[in-house]
Amino acid sequence: MAKERLDLLVIGGGITGAGIALDAAARGLRVGLVEKWDFAAGTSGRSTKLIHGGLRYLKQGEIHLVREVGRERAILYRNAPHVVVPERMLLPILRGGSLGRGMTAFGLWLYDRLADVQPAERRVMLSRAETLTAEPLLSPERLIGGGLYYEYRTDDARLTIEVVKTAAALGALCVNRAEAVALLYDAGRIRGAVVLDRESGEEHTVTARQVVNAAGPWVDELRRMDRSLDDRRLHLTKGVHVVVPRSRLPLRQSVYFDVEDGRMVFAIPRDAVTYIGTTDTDYDGPLDQPPVLLEDVRYLLRAANHMFSGVHLTPGDVCSGWAGLRPLIHEEGRSPSELSRKDEIFLSPTGLISIAGGKLTAYRKMAERAVDVVMRRLAETEGRPWRPSRTADIPLSGGERGKAETLAEMRALRVPAPADAGDARVMEDRIRRLYRRYGCNAPAIWADAMRQAERTEEVDEKLLEAEFRYGVEEEMVCNPCDFLVRRTGALHFEPDQAHERFRRVLSRATAWFGWDEARVAREVEAWEAQRQAAAGFTTLPSQGRGRP
Ligand SMILES: Cc1cc2nc3c(=O)[nH]c(=O)nc-3n(C[C@H](O)[C@H](O)[C@H](O)COP(=O)(O)OP(=O)(O)OC[C@H]3O[C@@H](n4cnc5c(N)ncnc54)[C@H](O)[C@@H]3O)c2cc1C
């Protein structure tokens, strides 16, 4: 990156920056992206992990947004079917709840039309008895019925990395562990950044015709550095999720339910766990590792205990959790939940383009708007030809070819499996998991593992090795935390096995990178800090500790 003058430098490797890098590379621009920690280490790895159809926008009367996110959701599903999966959602209707039966029926009907929902996924209204059959754990007391509709489930960090990989395949230079520590100017116009390589400690000068600040919650830090922070600024709100073993909240499907204070919360089963979230509170603490506090945990558990009878969750049941910061745009007098989720572009007199707000769901459209600004400027200053966004028709990495979700489909691709494949159900489960993570990149990882696995008992071990190798070679994994927190989600979603995996991954990483003892000790410390941040809420965690 430092060797050439880029057309565009993107600061921030969350979904917004990744989307911008992809859109710009697809329009033929020379793009560089720098991320100070790891891709999706900020908000984009800490969301509710849903590609929304925008139901909540309907409640706020933002019809245009419902339409836009509905369209975006369909595009994402087409381009990345492995990481964007339809998820049945139950909306219980309660006596005295936020929406009555008539309003829920009408709201969901309108939402189906506005968001252009597929006929098979349109809402179904349920009687009280049908609702209790759909979800026997619901408290019957105030229940008067329910609505079934569809949201789409994603893995936010994996979605982000797939966008980064797609951008890189189109020529974008994307790098993690690279922090923009100063901005560079030429006659008052921004022309790049000083970038610190956090691995080596070296600094590099990266120059670019245009610079986009997509730093999420850190957007205003960069605007301050640019001396362009004005009255229009970010309003950060914190959202917490907690994870409990699925056996403690064995829901049959996801549920979106009312909380006493008028907010709504999701409970989403995923593999061996169920996660519950989110909170929405003003935040002005350190940005790098927002804490999960005991009061956040209590709020969510109280909400779940109220909605589901007989479960009686306590903080002792919580095996993990995460907190993320919403980089929303400040509006005077509005509470956290009332703030619009719309995105906004700030243009600085120096030329710095900052973008914030928005949702994971609509990242593609946000990116298109930001790159439109870049293209217009390049047309004005350099006479570059205008090219429209192409990303609606670009499959994301892993979403390009057909499915390989079963053993039979893997075999059809002539991917090997051990002669004695062991328990077929276990094997199918492994393959499905791999497919959900990597899509059509999964067969290559599977084949790599199977080449090494001589016996069925070795399959798990060799799969972990093959996944790690793929992570290092194709997804810029630099340490065990990148792999276990963001590339595979093990920290939160396989809490029982995560620590054991850490030991195995650490030994692979030590051999691979040739780490000395001091470095290994730092990695152990970083992992313990992650575990503490995820599950150490009972003693109020010290703020800002550890790296994301
Ligand atoms: C609790 C919660 C739940 C949510 N749930 C959903 C949901 O279910 N569906 C949905 O669509 N949306 C959801 N959202 C919204 C969505 O997650 C965010 O809108 C989105 O992830 C923001 O992405 P971003 O790229 O703008 O920010 P980030 O993901 O935070 O990315 C910014 C990146 O910039 C990097 N950075 C900062 N400063 C520098 C620097 N100087 N140099 C280099 N890099 C830098 C950071 O390390 C970070 O990785 C949720 C948000 C929260 C908080």
Q: Which molecules are bound besides the chains?
A: flavin-adenine dinucleotide
Sequence stretches where pLDDT stays below 50 over 5 or more residues:
538-548
Distance between the termini: 25 Å
What overall geometry do the principal axes of the alpha carbons give? Answer: globular
Main sheet, how many strands, which sense, barrel? Answer: 10 strands, mixed
Mean pLDDT: 91
- What is the tally of helical segments? 17
| SS content category | alpha+beta
Rounded Rg: 23 Å
Residues in β-strands, percent:
15-25%
Helix content class: 25-40%
Tell me what the structure shows.
The chain is of the alpha+beta class. It contains 17 helices and 18 strands. The strands form 2 sheets. Strands 3, 4, 5, 6, 11, 12, 13, 14, 15 and 16 form a 10-stranded mixed beta sheet that branches. Strands 1, 2, 7, 8, 9, 10, 17 and 18 form an 8-stranded mixed beta sheet that branches. Strand 13 and strand 14 form a beta hairpin. Helix 12 crosses helix 13 (459-474). Bound molecules: flavin-adenine dinucleotide (FAD).
Précis, in short:
The protein is built from 17 helices and 18 strands. It has helices at 15-26, 55-59, 63-79, 101-114, 128-134, 156-169, 219-225, 294-307, 363-382, 407-412, 424-438, 442-452, 459-474, 480-487, 490-493, 495-513, 517-535; strands at 5-11, 31-34, 50-51, 84-94, 124-126, 143-154, 173-175, 178-186, 189-197, 203-213, 234-245, 254-258, 264-270, 273-277, 281-282, 320-329, 343-347, 353-357.
Detail the topology: elements first, then pairings:
Blueprint: E1 5-11, H1 15-26, E2 31-34, E3 50-51, H2 55-59, H3 63-79, E4 84-94, H4 101-114, E5 124-126, H5 128-134, E6 143-154, H6 156-169, E7 173-175, E8 178-186, E9 189-197, E10 203-213, H7 219-225, E11 234-245, E12 254-258, E13 264-270, E14 273-277, E15 281-282, H8 294-307, E16 320-329, E17 343-347, E18 353-357, H9 363-382, H10 407-412, H11 424-438, H12 442-452, H13 459-474, H14 480-487, H15 490-493, H16 495-513, H17 517-535
Parallel strand pairs: 1-2, 1-10, 2-7, 4-12, 10-18
Antiparallel strand pairs: 3-6, 4-6, 5-6, 8-9, 9-10, 11-14, 11-15, 11-16, 12-13, 13-14, 17-18
Helix pairs in contact: 1-6, 1-9, 11-12, 12-13, 14-16
The protein binds flavin-adenine dinucleotide.
Flavin-adenine dinucleotide (FAD) binds next to helix 1, strand 8 and strand 16.
